[in-house]
Structure formats: C-alpha cells, structure tokens
Design goal:
- The protein is mainly alpha-helical.
- It has one domain.
- 19% of the residues are buried.
C-alpha cells in the first residue's frame, strides 16, 4: 500500500494520509482500492464535520436571538400601560453586548410588526405614545416570532442529531477500514510489511 502508513488504530492519523492520497489521485497518481476507500471515508467525515459546525453555529445564533427576543418581550410586558387611555414607550432591554437596546428598534430591525406603527422619527426609538392595545399587539407579534424561532430550533436539533449520528457512523466505518488495512499489511510470522 503506497502512501498509507498507519498503525490502524487512529482515524485522526489517517486523515492526513488520506489527504495525501487524495492529492496523489488529483495529481494523476493511482490509488489502490483500500487507499481509495480510506480517502473517500475521510472526505465524508470532513464534509459531515463542516455541516455539523455550520448547524451548531446556526443554533447558537438562533439561541442568542431568542435570548434577546425574550428580554424584549419582558420589557414590553413591563411597559404595558395599566389603563386603556394611558400611553407609554416600548421600553428597552440589555442586549448580549451589555448595551441598552430599544424594543422598538429590535422589533423593527427583525421585521416584527409593532402595534401603533413602528417608524421612529429621525432615529428616535423612544416614542412615548403607545396605547395599551398597541403594546399588547406588539407583545403578541413578538411572541409569535419567538414561537416560530422555537419551532426552527427544534428542527435544528433534530438535524444536528442526524448529522452527529452520521458522523459517528462514518468514524466507525473509518476505524473499521483502518483495522482491516492494518491486518492486511501484517504477514503471518513475518511481522508488519516494510
């Protein structure tokens, strides 16, 4: 087996050798069947790792958004006027950077409709003329956006579990290939091939 030198026990060691073999194949070198199997399985693991990292990044971003949306929701609930004729602002909350952010701006930035209108004049996100009904409508709209994000989070978790299972299966298959290659490289009574 040219190009592959491994003790047969570590798929991580095989990755470097498989990449060498892939390079040899790309440059016109010939791979025997075991080398090709090793190369393909290693590339499969690499693709699955990339997909898994991307899925985890998406889940992290969605979780961060949900934390901010829940903080905005709590601020809205705290701002809701007691009386129907009373007026209030949408309030603010502390975002993930530790800065105070306007609920109105957050909702506007994320395309969530605001009761009573959401257009700030000259960048002023501190309007104080929202009625109880305006804020209640805003709460319901934000809750709907949070529910949608939670549904997507559940689907993301299912997808991540599937990717993890596929990656684990690929790892086991790579280990099996390496073990088989290790056994094939040992001749009875002579020790490992040199």
């Amino acid at each position: 087996m040219s190009g592959i030198k491994n003790d047969g026990t570590s798929p991580m060691l095989a990755q470097g050798n498989a990449h060498d073999a892939a390079g040899a194949a790309a440059s016109g070198g010939n791979l025997d069947l075991p080398e090709l199997m090793l190369t393909l399985q290693t590339e499969r693991m690499s693709v699955l790792d990339t997909q898994l990292r991307g899925q985890m990044d998406d889940m992290k971003k969605r979780t961060e958004w949900l934390r901010m949306a829940n903080a905005a929701l709590n601020a809205l609930r705290a701002q809701r006027p007691a009386g129907e004729d009373d007026k209030a602002s949408m309030g603010g909350f502390t975002n993930l950077k530790g800065e105070t952010q306007s609920v109105l701006q957050f909702m506007n930035d994320h395309g969530i409709p605001v009761g009573g209108g959401d257009k700030a004049e000259h960048g002023d996100w501190t309007r104080h003329d929202y009625t109880q009904q305006d804020i209640q409508t805003s709460i319901e709209n934000l809750k709907s956006a949070v529910d949608t994000a939670n549904s997507h989070s559940q689907a993301d978790q299912i997808r991540m579990q599937g990717l993890m299972e596929a990656r684990n299966q690929a790892y086991e298959q790579l280990s099996s290939i390496l073990t088989r290659l290790s056994r094939e490289s040992i001749k009875p009574g002579l020790g490992p091939e040199r």
